[in-house]
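User: Hey, my collaborator sent me this sequence without any context and asked if I could get a structure. I don't really work with proteins. Can you help?
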Amino acid sequence: MKSFEERTKIIRKLIKARMQTNPLPEADIPEYMLDSLPPMSAWGTPEGTIFATIIAYYETKTPQKTEIETINEIDSIDFHGKLPNKLNEYIKLKIDIEHSMFKRAYPISFIDMCILIVSTEMGYSLSNNISLTGKEAEYVSQHNQTVKAKNAGCIALMWIIGIGAAILLLTKC
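Assistant: No problem. I've predicted the 3D structure and written it out in structure-token form, which is a compact way to encode the shape of the chain:
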């Protein structure tokens, strides 16, 4: 399970992704300040709502439950019988209601990207069929390349450290 700090870091990634794909000049903070954004402020953003909803969905979902059954279980809001039957549509509706002032910056394509990023970061098996296009697809591609590069760098560093340790042990013997 990821710590509160690690989860907050993922929310900051979502904020950064939204700032790059769907900027809100009237509400965005400078990117260099994003890391110092207080955790509770990050959790109070639309991205915090998106993150919390995705987590609630995946922690409630079982193989026996359909998507709509899972959504019904995690939601107590009465949508007058019009609860969406897909996770991305449900998140969009929550954003439209809870963060209506900024809803234009959260199209379904961005929400799909968030589902993909959060699922990957949290280690969830993605059960939704998500296909991204445009700016969101480009962002996820860059994100995946960065993660692969970091992983390759860590593996190379571990290999070098391992060789160094082996040489050190051999010289001590």
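In plain terms: The CA atoms of residues 24 and 91 lie 19 Å apart. You can pass these tokens on to your collaborator as they are.
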